[in-house]
C-alpha cells in the first residue's frame, strides 16, 4: 500500500524530531571514543578518555556524591511520599484538598527560583550549604513526584481486596504482606526511581547548595566545561546517559504496569 | 457448618439507625435471602455477621458461639463480594489457595483442596489464569471457590449476581444453588431482586429502614405478606384501602370486600390481592359465594406474548390483573367488567 502524502510528511517530521533529540547525544557518545581531542574525523577508536576518567578524582568523587545524595533522597522521599499518598487515600482531614493542590506548583516553578529561595532560606536558617542541604532540597523537589506517582497507583486500589483477604482469615499483617504491598509495589518502585532521577539529574539547586570541593556530578561537569572542555566529560556524560536511559526504561515499564488492571 | 443467630442487633452511624433491633435465625445448612430495597441495611447486617463491623448492642451467635467481639479473620466465614474482589496479581490457583495459605495448610493438601474447589465450580484447568483473563461469570466462580475452599462455617454473599447480565445471572443462580446443596453450607445471601430471593432461598427476611419486617419461606411470604410494603416489594399487588365494617373491608364507595379472616378492630384497614389471583368474569358467570366481586373499567390491555396484563380503574383505585393468553372473550378498553377473586386471596396487611 502506498503511503499517503500526509503520512509521509508525518514520518519525516518524526524523523527530524528524533534526530534533533538524539543526534547530539550520539555524536557525544561517539566522540567519547575518539582519540582526537578536537573531534577530528574519521574516528580513531580508543578507550583512553575512559581510562583518564578513571583517574580523575574530582569527577569520580562528584559522581559518588551524586549517587549518595540521590540514594538518600530516594529513601526519604519514597517513604514520606508513600506515607502521604496512603494518608490522602485513606483518611479525610482538614485542608486535605489544599494540601493536595499544594503539591503541584513546585513542579511548575522554575528551578532557578526554587534554588534561589532555598539558598536564601538555608542561609537564613543556619542550615547552610553542602550535601546535607542538597539532600533536603532534593527531597523537597522529589516529594511531589513520588506522591503523584504512588497516588495514581493507590487510586485504583479496591478496599474490598483487603476486606476479602480478612474474610479469608488473613491477619492484619498477612493482609499487608500478601495484598496491599504487592499491589503498591509497582507504584512505590516507580516513585523511587522518579525520586532518584530527579535528584541525580538536578543541577541548579545542587549548584547553589554546593560548597567548594564538595559538589555533584552535574555541577562538576559544568565547572569543568567552564575551564575547558575535555573528552573525559564526553565519557562521563555518556555513562550517565546510559544510566539515565536504563532508569527511565525501568520507570516507564513500572509506570505502565501501574496503569493496567 | 453452623447456624447463625442474630438477636436484638442495633447499629447506628451517628444519628442514623442502620439496624433497628434486628433478630433473625438462620438454621444450619439452609439457604437464606435478605431482601430489601437499596439502603435498607442489608449490607450492614451482613457486615455485622461477617465481623467487618460490630453492633452497638445485641448478640450474634455462629454455631452457638457468641462472636460479636471476634474480628472477621477469626470468625471462619466465607464471603463473596459484589465486585468479586479477586486478587488481581494472583493466579486463579493462588486466589483460591489464599484462605488455606494463611492457615498454613500443608502444600499437598492445598493442591488437592484447590483442585476439588475448582472442579466444584467447573473451572478445572484454569489454575494459571489471571483474573483479568476470565469472563465475569468465571470470576464469580473463582470468588465462590475461594470463599468455600477452607470450609468456613457460613457463606455470606452480598448481591453476588447483580453485576452479571440476565442470562448469566439465571445460570449462576442454578449453579449457586447446586453448589450450596453439594457443600451443605449455611448460606446468607443479600439481594434487592425479589425474584432471585424467591427462587433461590429456603427462607427470606425482608428488611426496610433497618427493620426486619417479615421472615419466612418464599411461598408463605408471597401468599401472606404482612405489610403493604412486603406485598408490593415481593411481586405485584393491588392494594385496597378502606375501613373495617362488620369484619369486612368497606371501600370509600361503600363496596364491601371480605378478607381471609374477618377483620378485627375498627378504623382503617388495607388488603392486598395479587394480580394473578384476580380474573375478569365471563358474561353470565354466576356470582360465587366464596369470591369477592368488583366492577371496574378496563383501561388498557398489555400484550406480552404468553401473558396479558389488564389495567383497570375503579374510581381512584388503579388495578392490575394478569392472565394467561387464552383470550376467550373479546375485551375492549373502555368496557366495564366484573373482577372476581377468592376471599382466601384477599390478604389483610399493615399499611
Ligand atoms: N459506614 C457507614 N457510615 C455511615 N452510614 C452508613 C455506613 N454504612 C451504611 N450506612 C448507611 O446505612 C444505610 C444502610 O446501608 P446498607 O446496609 O449498605 O444498605 P443496603 O445494603 O441495603 O443497600 C444506608 O442509608 C447507608 O447510607
Ligand atoms: Mg448493599
UniProtKB/TrEMBL annotation, chain A:
InterPro entries xrefs: Bact_Polyamine_Transport, MetI-like, MetI-like_sf
Transmembrane segment boundaries: 12-33, 67-89, 101-124, 130-154, 175-198, 235-255
Keyword Zinc: no
Subcellular location: Cell membrane
Transmembrane is among the record's keywords: yes
Topology within the bilayer: Multi-pass membrane protein
Superkingdom per UniProt: Bacteria
Limits of the ABC transmembrane type-1 domain: 63-251
Pfam short name (any one): BPD_transp_1
PROSITE patterns the record matches: ABC_TM1
The entry's keywords: Cell membrane, Membrane, Transmembrane, Transmembrane helix, Transport
Family (UniProt): Belongs to the binding-protein-dependent transport system permease family. CysTW subfamily.
Stored PANTHER family: PUTRESCINE TRANSPORT SYSTEM PERMEASE PROTEIN POTI
Name the UniProt record assigns to this protein: Peptide ABC transporter permease
Naturally occurring in which organism (per UniProt): Salinicola acroporae
Automatic annotation (TrEMBL), chain B:
Keyword flag Membrane: yes
EC number, as in UniProt: 7.6.2.11
Domain ABC transporter: 4-234
Highest taxon above the source species: Bacteria
Catalysed reactions, as listed in the record: ATP + H2O + polyamine-[polyamine-binding protein]Side 1 = ADP + phosphate + polyamineSide 2 + [polyamine-binding protein]Side 1
GO function term, MF aspect, one: ATP binding
Designated name of the protein: Spermidine/putrescine import ATP-binding protein PotA
Database matches in Pfam families: ABC_tran, TOBE_2
Keywords: ATP-binding, Cell membrane, Membrane, Nucleotide-binding, Translocase, Transport
Function summary: Part of the ABC transporter complex PotABCD involved in spermidine/putrescine import. Responsible for energy coupling to the transport system.
InterPro entries in the record: AAA+_ATPase (IPR003593), ABC_SmlMolc_Importer (IPR050093), ABC_transporter-like_ATP-bd (IPR003439), ABC_transporter-like_CS (IPR017871), Mo/tungstate-bd_C_term_dom (IPR008995), P-loop_NTPase (IPR027417), PotA-like (IPR005893), Transp-assoc_OB_typ2 (IPR013611)
Oligomer status and interactors: The complex is composed of two ATP-binding proteins (PotA), two transmembrane proteins (PotB and PotC) and a solute-binding protein (PotD).
Homology family: Belongs to the ABC transporter superfamily. Spermidine/putrescine importer (TC 3.A.1.11.1) family.
Regions annotated as coiled coil: none
Keyword flag Translocase: yes
Family matches, as SMART domains: AAA
Gene3D superfamilies: 2.40.50.100, P-loop containing nucleotide triphosphate hydrolases
Amino acid at each position: 500500500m502506498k503511503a499517503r502524502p500526509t503520512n509521509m510528511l508525518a514520518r519525516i517530521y518524526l524523523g527530524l524530531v528524533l534526530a534533533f533529540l538524539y543526534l547530539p547525544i550520539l555524536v557525544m557518545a561517539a566522540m567519547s571514543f575518539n582519540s582526537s581531542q578536537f573531534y577530528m574525523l574519521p574516528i580513531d577508536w580508543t578507550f583512553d578518555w575512559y581510562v583518564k576518567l578513571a583517574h580523575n578524582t574530582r569527577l569520580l568523587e562528584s559522581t559518588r556524591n551524586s549517587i549518595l545524595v540521590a540514594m538518600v533522597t530516594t529513601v526519604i522521599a519514597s517513604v514520606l511520599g508513600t506515607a502521604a499518598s496512603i494518608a490522602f487515600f485513606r483518611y479525610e482531614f482538614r485542608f486535605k484538598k489544599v494540601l493536595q493542590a499544594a503539591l503541584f506548583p513546585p513542579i511548575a516553578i522554575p528551578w532557578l527560583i526554587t534554588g534561589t529561595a532555598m539558598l536564601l532560606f538555608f542561609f537564613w536558617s543556619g542550615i547552610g550549604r553542602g550535601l546535607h542541604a542538597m539532600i533536603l532540597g532534593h527531597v523537597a523537589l522529589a516529594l511531589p513526584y513520588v506522591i503523584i506517582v504512588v497516588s495514581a497507583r493507590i487510586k485504583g486500589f479496591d478496599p474490598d481486596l483487603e476486606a476479602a483477604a480478612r474474610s479469608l482469615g488473613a491477619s492484619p499483617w498477612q493482609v499487608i504482606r500478601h495484598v496491599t504491598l504487592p499491589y503498591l509495589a509497582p507504584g512505590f518502585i516507580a516513585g523511587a526511581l522518579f525520586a532518584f532521577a530527579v535528584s541525580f539529574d538536578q543541577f541548579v539547586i545542587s549548584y547553589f547548595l554546593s560548597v567548594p570541593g564538595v559538589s555533584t556530578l552535574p555541577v562538576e561537569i559544568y565547572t569543568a566545561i567552564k575551564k575547558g572542555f575535555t573528552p573525559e566529560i564526553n565519557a562521563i556524560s555518556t555513562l550517565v546517559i546510559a544510566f539515565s536511559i536504563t532508569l527511565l526504561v525501568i520507570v516507564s515499564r513500572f509506570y505502565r504496569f501501574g496503569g493496567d488492571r | 457448618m453452623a447456624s447463625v443467630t442474630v438477636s436484638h442487633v442495633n447499629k447506628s452511624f451517628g444519628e442514623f439507625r442502620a439496624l433497628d433491633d434486628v433478630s433473625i435465625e438462620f438454621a444450619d445448612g439452609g439457604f437464606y435471602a435478605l431482601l430489601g430495597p437499596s439502603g435498607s441495611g442489608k449490607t450492614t447486617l451482613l457486615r455485622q455477621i461477617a465481623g467487618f463491623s460490630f453492633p452497638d448492642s445485641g448478640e450474634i451467635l455462629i454455631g452457638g458461639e457468641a462472636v460479636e467481639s471476634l474480628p472477621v479473620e477469626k470468625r471462619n466465614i466465607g464471603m463473596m463480594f459484589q465486585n468479586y474482589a479477586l486478587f488481581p496479581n494472583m493466579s486463579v490457583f493462588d486466589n483460591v489457595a489464599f484462605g488455606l495459605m494463611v492457615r498454613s495448610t500443608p502444600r499437598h493438601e492445598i493442591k488437592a483442596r484447590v483442585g476439588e474447589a475448582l472442579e466444584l465450580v467447573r473451572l478445572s484447568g484454569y489454575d494459571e489464569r489471571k483474573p483479568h483473563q476470565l469472563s465475569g461469570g468465571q470470576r464469580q466462580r473463582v470468588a465462590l471457590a475461594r470463599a468455600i475452599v477452607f470450609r468456613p462455617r457460613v457463606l455470606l454473599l452480598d448481591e453476588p449476581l447483580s453485576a452479571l447480565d440476565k442470562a448469566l445471572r439465571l445460570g449462576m443462580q442454578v449453579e449457586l444453588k447446586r453448589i450450596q446443596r453439594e457443600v451443605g453450607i449455611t448460606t446468607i445471601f443479600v439481594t434487592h431482586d425479589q425474584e432471585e430471593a424467591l427462587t433461590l432461598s429456603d427462607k427470606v427476611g425482608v428488611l426496610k429502614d433497618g427493620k426486619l419486617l417479615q421472615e419466612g419461606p418464599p411461598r408463605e411470604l408471597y401468599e401472606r405478606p404482612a405489610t403493604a410494603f412486603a406485598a408490593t416489594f415481593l411481586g405485584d399487588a393491588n392494594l385496597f384501602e378502606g375501613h373495617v365494617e362488620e369484619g369486612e373491608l368497606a371501600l370509600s364507595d361503600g363496596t364491601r370486600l371480605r378478607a381471609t379472616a374477618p377483620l378485627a378492630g375498627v378504623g382503617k384497614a388495607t388488603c392486598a390481592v395479587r394480580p394473578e389471583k384476580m380474573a375478569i368474569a365471563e358474561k353470565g358467570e354466576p356470582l360465587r359465594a366464596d369470591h369477592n366481586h368488583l366492577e371496574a373499567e378496563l383501561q388498557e390491555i398489555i400484550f406480552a406474548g404468553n401473558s396479558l396484563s389488564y389495567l383497570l380503574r375503579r374510581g381512584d383505585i388503579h388495578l392490575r390483573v394478569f392472565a394467561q393468553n387464552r383470550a376467550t372473550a373479546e375485551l375492549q378498553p373502555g368496557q366495564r367488567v366484573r373482577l372476581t377473586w377468592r376471599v382466601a386471596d384477599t390478604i389483610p396487611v399493615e399499611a
